[in-house]
From TrEMBL, chain A:
This is Cytochrome c-type biogenesis protein. CDD domains: CcmH_N. Possible subunit of a heme lyase. The chain crosses the membrane at residues 99-120. It holds the Pfam family CcmH. It comes from Paraconexibacter antarcticus. Keywords: Heme, Iron, Membrane, Metal-binding, Signal, Transmembrane, Transmembrane helix. InterPro entries: CcmH/CycL/Ccl2/NrfF_N (IPR005616), CcmH/CycL/NrfF/Ccl2_sf (IPR038297). It comes from the Bacteria.
From TrEMBL, chain B:
This is TlpA family protein disulfide reductase. PROSITE patterns: THIOREDOXIN_1 (PS00194), THIOREDOXIN_2 (PS51352). It comes from the Bacteria. SUPFAM superfamilies: Thioredoxin-like. Residues 40-182 form the Thioredoxin domain. It comes from Paraconexibacter antarcticus. The lineage of its organism: Bacteria, Bacillati, Actinomycetota, Thermoleophilia, Solirubrobacterales.
């Protein structure tokens, strides 16, 4: 095979791959329902999927318009953010005072866990409760109680 | 950790959470400082006047302070807002009067509005004054705003002579502009 023929074959191969690439690499079309629950109605301060106001209707119309333009979900969200600001996103941004909405719950759960881990063993020791592990001894019943239990079980046919 | 440290740490954490709550409420809460100052006739400067906001037509940025030396009527509006539509013809009538003698201008500030919806609204009501987009409600918060529409009338020195939270009427607007004219000299 001459060099020229080889080059032609290579160019043909590249063109063939390029022709099929858009179809195979296409990003799935954005779904309205998928976007609607990640967006806030910026005037009513509730998620758009439960909002009922003229502004909410405008936002829905805008989302449909952007989807119709062929934008991906992330592109639609970015566009909404540039048009309406950070307030439009249901997840608050991780900056400024808003970061507390992420850090406080994590800190609170961690703090409570740490506090329980530190105090529970101490309380248990102080209260004198026996260890309740799998090998823990079960206190024996008094003979009267044992007889009554046997009677009850016998009556129940167990 | 020593035995006595646990309640102390819990107390500190609880105090920090309460402080955070107080701070959050103070930051996000309603601020009536401007209303109080205007009501007492102190002629306060407009908070956030130097904040540059994008024009609704995408042609750059504008701040309230860029009109210093002129009367400015700052009107917060949204295309989705019915009272804004109701007062729109009044705003444009008064804008024409201010523009006629070069005394000042209105400046629209859109709140949570999709730009092309804002443009359609401005076109529908024949707005000849500029409007900007208050992204993330930065100016809105500085003004202690609680709803839409709201109107702030500034004299040529950038001082607030009158404000109205809610829809305005002709009497309020004409009185406020007359006051701004008098205060500007």
């Amino acid at each position: 095979m001459s060099a020229r023929r080889a080059l032609r074959a290579l160019v043909a191969l590249v063109l063939a791959v390029a022709a099929f690439a858009p179809a195979s690499a296409a990003t799935p079309r954005a779904s309205f329902n998928d976007i609607e629950d990640e967006v806030m109605c910026v005037t009513c301060n509730v998620p758009l999927n439960i909002a009922n106001s003229p502004q909410a209707d405008d936002e829905r119309k805008e989302i449909r318009r952007l989807i119709a333009l062929g934008l991906t979900k992330q592109q639609v969200l970015d566009r909404l953010k540039s048009e309406l600001g950070n307030e439009v996103l249901a997840d608050p941004p991780t900056s400024g005072f808003n970061i507390t909405t992420w850090l406080v719950p994590i800190g609170a759960v961690g703090g409570v866990g740490l506090l329980l881990a530190l105090t529970l063993p101490r309380w248990r020791r102080r209260s004198g409760l026996p260890d309740q592990g799998p090998d823990a001894k079960v206190p024996e019943l008094a003979p009267d109680d044992l007889r009554r239990l046997d009677d009850e079980l016998g009556r129940a046919g167990i | 950790m020593k035995r006595s440290a646990v309640p102390s740490v819990a107390l500190v954490v609880a105090a920090a959470l309460v402080a955070l709550l107080v701070y959050g409420v103070a930051v996000k809460g309603t601020d009536t400082t401007l209303d109080d100052a205007v009501a007492k006739g102190r002629l306060p400067q407009l908070p956030g006047a130097t904040l540059a906001m994008p024009n609704i037509d995408g042609s750059g940025k504008t701040s309230v302070a860029s009109f210093r030396g002129k009367i400015v009527v700052v009107n917060i509006w949204g295309s989705w807002c019915e009272p804004c539509a109701a007062e729109a013809p009044l705003l444009e009538r008064e804008q024409a009067k201010l523009a006629a003698d070069h005394a000042g201008t209105f400046l629209g500030v859109t709140k949570n509005d999709i730009p092309h919806e804002s443009m359609a609204f401005a076109k529908k009501y024949g707005y000849t004054f500029p409007s900007v987009r208050d992204l993330d409600s930065k100016l809105y918060r500085k003004l202690g705003s609680t709803g839409v529409p709201e109107t702030f009338v500034l004299d040529a020195k950038g001082r607030v002579v009158a404000l109205r939270r809610g829809q305005i009427d002709e009497k309020f607007l004409q009185n406020a502009i007359a006051q701004a004219r008098a205060s500007s000299t």
